[in-house]
Design a protein that fits this description.
The structure holds two protein chains of two kinds. Chain A is mostly helical. Chain A has a single domain, classed as ACP-like (Non-ribosomal Peptide Synthetase Peptidyl Carrier Protein, Chain A, Orthogonal Bundle). Helix content of chain A is about 50%, strand content about 0%. Chain A is built from four helices and no strands. Chain A is globular, with a radius of gyration of 13 Å. The termini of chain A are close together. Chain B has two domains: about 240 residues, Thiolase/Chalcone synthase (Peroxisomal Thiolase, Chain A, domain 1); about 150 residues, Peroxisomal Thiolase, Chain A, domain 1, CATH 3.40.47.10. Chain B contains twelve helices and 16 strands. In chain B, strands 1, 2, 5, 6, 7, 8, 9, 10, 11, 13, 15 and 16 form a twelve-stranded mixed sheet that branches. In chain B, strands 3-4 form a two-stranded antiparallel sheet. The radius of gyration of chain B is 20 Å and the shape is globular. The chains are: A mainly alpha, B alpha/beta.
Chain lengths: ~90, ~425
């Protein structure tokens, strides 16, 4: 059984998101607004795509295009990534 | 079209090898100060090109916000800077005008080539997952139009025209069409920037580029030993406004858009004449101006002997041999494609505004066989009511724009 699974935190998300995605008037994502939709915060669909692409590059986590509707907010994205990490953890043990 | 109802140019924004800003550009033009220099955007050792017209000291981070800078190409950076400068020069705050009466029409000949090359490098070096999402909008021809529209809240009918060097003139034809149809203010013009290996290789395929190494003699259109043209980056954005709207707010007018025509050359195998002469005639007819009323022609000036001869033949056919002063200040910048003809329009309205024909720097005299009164040696003061700007784009695009003086009401001859 897996001893521990790497956790993906809101800080991990903001480190990726705040690099160069979104508009210049986009809000910084914090615990206080992480449940608001990306587009309300100033991150359009392209910004979310870029975020997903950088997640794959820097964290090795792949969110398929068809799953984008499941991550409307930063918080839901954190949850989604953590579910992926848990799912693949047993394989990592082998 | 009458003089009074023709759309007016009320704002200029220049980002060009001759300098950033209208004053700097115009001073360079009058002094013959060239922006052509050894290519420094990348090391061209592996390519036959050595010289280019590069915009000096362009630091977009001073005026374009950081994220937008990361998400757009250099040509778009220049467009954003030029458009903001043009609106400011016109004294227009877009927030004061109904958003759907504000339009943007730009010319683009290559799209975001440098941005695209960078992303392609990531593709073949690292794989598809490394190509940024912003590639999808940064490369493409309408990127500059879209970003200007978004930045300034200009939500009227906007678009992009892609006719290589001819496209810049066509944006003013399109602007005029929009101003007749409900738009009040149009940002028109273009800025191209393709001085990266990918962009240069594409341009080399025309075999029209000058591979000369001496900046002072590399681009000499209409000279007996013309050797092609030097490519460059940058261009201009202009504010074109409905004349009644400009008059109502007491705006300064640099010039007015009297007429426009576009044409396309017949296929070479058809053995028919190129479209330029008939395009000039149609533009003059559109303006209601006789050839004799034209005070100067800003030539396309390809710098390729056969193309120079064809342009000279068109000028002789329409105006008569040596009958109109002809000039090509673009010898100071190289050809900037969609940005180049846009910059020519800015220079032409400045000529109307200041009543002087700028010279073609870098040339002692043209080939006499062309029968063209090329303005060389220094600017030539002149009473200018009407000037014509010409442009030809690779592949057969041809465009002519007729501009009138802005600061006086005249009866057209």
């Amino acid at each position: 059984m897996s001893l521990s699974v790497a956790r993906f935190t809101l800080d991990d998300l903001t480190a990726v998101l705040h690099s160069d995605t979104g508009f210049d008037n986009a809000e910084a994502v914090t615990a206080a607004n992480a449940d608001r939709p990306f587009d309300e915060l100033g991150y359009d669909s392209l910004a979310v795509l870029e975020f997903v692409s950088q997640l794959r590059r820097h964290h090795g986590v792949h969110i398929p295009d068809e799953a984008l509707s499941e991550i409307p907010t930063p918080l839901s994205a954190v949850d989604y990534v953590n579910r992926l990490l848990v799912e693949r953890a047993p394989n990592a043990e082998v | 079209m009458t003089w009074d109802t023709a759309p007016v140019v009320t704002g200029l924004g220049v980002v060009a090898p001759t300098g950033i800003g209208v004053e700097r550009h115009w001073e360079s033009v009058l002094k013959g100060r060239s922006g052509i220099a050894p290519l420094e955007r990348f090391d061209p050792a592996d390519y036959p090109l050595r010289l280019a017209g590069q915009v000096p000291d362009f630091t977009p981070r001073d005026s374009v916000p950081g994220r937008l800078l990361q998400q757009t190409d250099r040509g778009t950076h220049m467009g954003l800077v030029a458009a903001a400068a043009a609106l400011d020069d016109a004294g227009i705050d877009p927030a004061d005008v109904p958003e759907f009466e504000l339009a943007v029409v730009t010319a683009a000949s290559s799209g975001g080539t440098e941005f695209g090359q960078h992303e392609m490098e990531r593709l073949y070096q690292n794989g598809p997952g490394w190509v940024g999402a912003y590639q999808s909008i940064a490369w493409f021809y309408a990127a500059t139009t879209g970003q200007i529209s978004i930045r300034h809240g200009m939500r009227g009918p906007s678009g992009v025209l892609c006719q290589e060097q001819a496209g810049g003139l066509d944006t003013f034809g399109q602007a005029r069409r929009l101003l007749r149809g409900g738009s009040r203010v149009v940002v028109a013009g273009g800025t191209d920037a393709s001085l990266c290996p990918y962009g240069v290789v594409a341009q080399l395929s025309t075999r029209a580029l000058s591979t000369a190494t001496d900046p002072d003699s590399a681009y000499r259109p209409f000279a007996p030993d013309a050797c092609g043209y030097v490519p460059g980056e940058g261009g201009a954005m202009l504010v074109v406004e409905r004349s009644d709207a400009a008059a109502a707010r007491g705006a300064r007018t640099y010039g007015r858009v009297l007429g426009h025509a576009a044409g396309f050359d017949p296929a070479p195998v058809l053995d028919r004449p190129p479209a330029l002469a008939s395009t000039i005639e149609r533009a003059l007819a559109d303006a209601g101006v006789a050839p004799g009323a034209v005070g100067a022609v800003f030539a396309d000036a390809m710098g390729v002997p056969a193309a120079d001869a064809a342009e000279a033949a068109a000028l002789r056919a329409v105006f008569g041999p040596g009958a109109v002063p002809v000039t090509a200040p673009k010898t100071l910048t190289g050809r900037l494609y969609g940005g180049g003809s846009s910059l020519d329009v800015a220079t032409a309205v400045l000529a109307l505004h200041h009543q002087v024909v700028p010279h073609t720097a870098g040339l002692d005299r043209p080939d006499p066989r062309h029968g063209v009164d090329l303005v060389v040696g220094g600017p030539r003061p002149a009473a200018l009511d009407v000037v014509v700007v010409l442009a030809r784009g690779h592949g057969g695009f041809t465009s002519a724009l007729v501009l009138g003086r802005g600061d006086t009401a005249l009866d057209l001859p």
